[in-house]
Amino acid sequence: VQLQASGGGLVQPGGSLRLSCTASGFTLDYYAVGWFRQAPGGEREWVSSITRDSSTYYSDSVKGRFTISGDGAKSTSTLEMNSLKPEDTAVYYCATKRDPFGAYEGWGQGTLVTVSS
Questions:
Q1: Is 14 exposed, middle or buried (0-12, 13-18, 19+ CB in 10 A)?
Q2: What is the rounded CA–CA span in Å between residue 89 and residue 71?
């Protein structure tokens, strides 16, 4: 499976963006979809996940501002980002995993989100 994140762009602080994650290849029977980001010069960090039973999880840095939705089993997802801050600036990626303890896979090209006035 290969996932592709899209929807990034330039937005002012306090603004909103919606990112989409679409999958190609064999997408059935996956456990969850996760969103990650990597800021310039930084490490990749986990942002949010949605499982096939629609359970959602968020990092503390985005909780209350970002909302994840989608279908964990089909490896598709949307990440609604509100009240964006300059520190949210990063390349955002999505990936999927087959079980709770497995590694994320299907990394594709990310989408750049720039929060700046």
A1: exposed
A2: 26
